[in-house]
Amino acid sequence: MPELPEVETIRRGLTATVLGRRVERVGAVWPASLRGPIEGGLVGRHLIGIRRRGKLLVGDLSDGGHVLVHLMMTGQLVVVEDGRILFAGGHPTRSMLGPMPNRTTRVILELTGGRVLYFNDQRKFGRLWLVDDAGLAADPFLARLGPEPLEPAFTLSAFRAQLRRHARAPVKAVLLNQTVVAGIGNIYADESLHLARVHPGRKAASLSSAESRRLRAAIRTTLALAVESGGTSFAEYVNAARGRQGYLTQARAFRREGLPCVVCGTTMKRIRVAGRGTTVCPRCQRSP
DNA sequence: CACTTGACCTGTCCGC
DNA sequence: TGCGGACAGGTCAAGT
Length: 288
What we know:
Elements lengths: L3 H14 L5 E6 L5 E2 L3 H4 L4 E7 L2 E6 L4 E5 L4 E7 L2 E7 L14 E7 L3 E7 L5 E5 L1 H6 L1 H5 L11 H10 L5 H6 L9 H11 L12 H20 L40 E5 L2 E5 L8
Parallel strand pairs: 2-10
Antiparallel strand pairs: 1-8, 3-4, 4-5, 5-10, 6-7, 6-9, 8-9, 11-12
The chain binds a DNA duplex through α7.
C-alpha cells in the first residue's frame, strides 16, 4: 500500500516519536512477518537513524546493523505510549487508531520510556528483517532499487534509457518497476501519467521525446506534492501531517473513476493495465 | 533477457 | 441474509 510519499511521511513520524530510543523487548506475534530472527540484533540497541529508500524503511542501530521494514500493501506502523497513539501511518484502517495490539499486529517493539512500536499488517505480505552493515549494501531488494525519483540521480537520460530497455512493456509497468525508479506504486503511477497526459497502456518505446520529458517531470512534481501533503490519506488516516487533508483532495486519477477529469471534464474510466486497476481520462490520455 | 501471470493473505464489496 | 467472485496503494517466482 504505502508508496514513496506515505513511507516518507512514516519516516518523519517515526523520527519524531522513536528516534534515539532503545529497544527493550521484541514480540514476534506472527513470526512469518520476519525474515530470520530479530531479537538478538535488536534488544539493547538504540535507533540512531531512520531513513527511507524507495518504499523501504531503514532503521539504523547503535553498534551496527539495520532493521528493514517493507509494509507492502497493508502494513502499518503505530507508536503508542500509555495507550495514547502518538503516530500511526501506513494502510489506513479504523482499527489503527484503536487499542493495540489488535488482530493485525504482527510484531511489537517495546522501547524505552514505555513507548511501543506496533507493526500491523492485515494481509501478512509485509516484512521486517535485520541486516548487518555489510548486509545492507548486499541486501537483494535494496541493491536492485533504481534511483530515488526526487534525487538528481533520476535523470532524463537515465529514464529514457529505461524506457528503451523495456520497450515493449506498457509504460505504467515500467513506472511500477522498482529497478527503474524506486518508490512509485499504483496510485502515483496513475497520477503521474495523467499529469503527463500519457496513456498507461502505451508501449514504453512509443513515447515521444516530449512525452518522456513530461512524464519524468510529472513523476517528480506529483511525488513532491504528495510528500508535502503528507501522502494520500483517507478520512481516518493519522500521520505526521495530522490536521491536514493529505494528497487525496488533490488527486487527479486515484479513486476518480466515474468522476469528471480535473482538466477537461470527461468522465474518468477504470481499465486494467499491467494487471493493475488503472484510472485514465480517455480524452487527455489517448489510447495506444 | 524482456515481459506476463499467478501466488502470497485477509477483508470488503457487489451481484445473484 | 448468504455465498461466490473480483479486487485491493506490492513483490517475487515461474512461465512464455
